[in-house]
Automatic annotation (TrEMBL):
This is Uncharacterized protein. The lineage of its organism: Eukaryota, Sar, Rhizaria, Retaria, Foraminifera. Keywords: Coiled coil. The keyword Coiled coil applies. GO terms for molecular function: dynein intermediate chain binding; dynein light intermediate chain binding; minus-end-directed microtubule motor activity. GO terms for biological process: cilium assembly; cilium movement involved in cell motility; intraciliary retrograde transport. Residues 1-28 form a coiled coil. GO terms for cellular component: 9+2 motile cilium; axoneme; cytoplasmic dynein complex.
Length: 219
């Protein structure tokens, strides 16, 4: 019985470590998602109605709404709901654990296209400024190469969010929610091995506690 108790204690320590690792991974993206949801809660029905009845909906707004619909239901990217309350509730009640890697890859590749163009344009302007200033037309200096690399490595979704937020605070809140959902979904997929370890430890510890109860009852 003593050996069994030692095994339980050891596994409980392992479980605590695994739980701590999982929590550390989830803390930041969960906080971002909570903040994004608060922004969604602050969206007024009037604001949504005004956007719905725009004669010409800007391309970034269309893209944001399509991304939202794809995240909620990848089989139907057209949101036909006329219920404003449901439009908001669907986002607040959405389970990010249902987001697949296929959805993540699609959103990261299709929801960020114009961001790549924006980055290239900004880098081009920096190079043109350097050339104009020094009237030199040969190789680009290393610091500008580094800047180009930084633009390439920047989170594209964050760049897209800034562009959308400038056009519409409502769409900016929705874009922020999409970004937060994608980011936490990526973490959930990454920690699946840890979650598997935690599940196995839970089963093993529960089984050992059952054994202990039987031994204590018969002793």
């Amino acid at each position: 019985m003593d050996k069994l108790k030692e095994e339980v204690a050891e596994q409980e320590q392992q479980r605590a470590k695994v739980k701590s690792k999982i929590q550390q991974e989830l803390n930041e993206p969960q906080l971002a998602l909570d903040i994004a949801k608060k922004k969604i809660q602050c969206i007024s029905k009037l604001s949504l109605m005004e956007i719905r009845y725009l004669r010409v909906v800007p391309e970034l707004m269309k893209e944001t709404l399509l991304a939202r619909s794809y995240l909620l239901n990848p089989l139907c990217v057209t949101d036909k709901s006329r219920d404003i309350s449901k439009f908001i509730k669907d986002m607040l009640d959405f389970d990010v654990a249902t987001i697949t890697m296929e959805q993540i890859k699609y959103l990261e590749s299709n929801f960020t296209n114009c961001v790549e163009i924006l980055s290239r344009e900004r880098v081009t302007k920096l190079i043109e400024c350097w050339i104009t200033r020094y009237e030199i037309f040969h190789e680009c200096p290393q610091y500008l190469v580094d800047i180009m690399l930084q633009y390439t490595l920047l989170t594209k979704l964050e760049w897209k969010f800034q562009s959308i937020d400038r056009q519409s605070k409502v769409m900016g809140a929705i874009a922020d929610w999409i970004i937060a959902c994608v980011n936490i979904a990526k973490v959930l997929h990454r920690i699946q091995p840890l979650q598997g370890d935690l599940d196995r430890l839970n089963v093993s510890i529960a089984s050992k506690y059952d054994e202990l109860q039987v031994l204590q009852a018969t002793s």
